[in-house]
Design a protein that fits this description.
The protein is mainly α. The protein has helices spanning about 1-40, 50-55, 60-70, 80-95, 95-120, 145-160, 165-185, 190-210.
Amino acid sequence: MHSLLFWLKHQFPARLRAVLPLLLGVIIPLLVFGDLAEDVWEKDGFFFDVPILLAIHSTAQPQLDVFVSYLTKLGVFWGVFPAAILTTLFLLVRRQWRALEFFLVTSTGSVIINRTVKLLLHRARPHLWTSPAPEFDYGFPSGHAMASMTFVTALVILSWNSPWRWFVLIAGSLFVLIIGWTRLYLGAHYPSDVLAGWSVSLAWTIGVSLLINPNQVIRKPPRSYV
């Protein structure tokens, strides 16, 4: 009994802290993505997709259409892509090799996962109204949602031991939500497309961080003078 109490008091909290990132950051998001992907594979619909899209579309205005059409581009080519290049150069200049490896693996892998799943599932995009910024490839999962979530999650992980972590977490979360909203406002994706993109990106990025540990400092062995 004494040994059990000692384990619960001293070792269990450390074990729990080690398991929580795997459970909350990888397993649960993967289960969400897998459930969504299975339903898409079986051509089943989601009861919440159309009502949410129609509710968002009810707020549409011509001026807002133009603004959102530009804003959504920050999710990939005008925002995430150049920011990812700058982040790569920053890590390269600072010779943070482990962090650079983590960032490149997560960024490249996210693109590969997105294109592979799109080609496997062939889910058509919504056609509830004429989109002011139409897309012509497959819709599941959302590439903008994946790109923004992967980039922000990677930045949060890289900055976790710095004073900037809460700013990155809060500002990045708002950015991810805004990009997801633009995809729905434009009618480019169903909500399930966006949710799937967020889930698989979260699982992928956190999973890679558990394998690579980008914040680990590589210490050089002491120089021998013999």
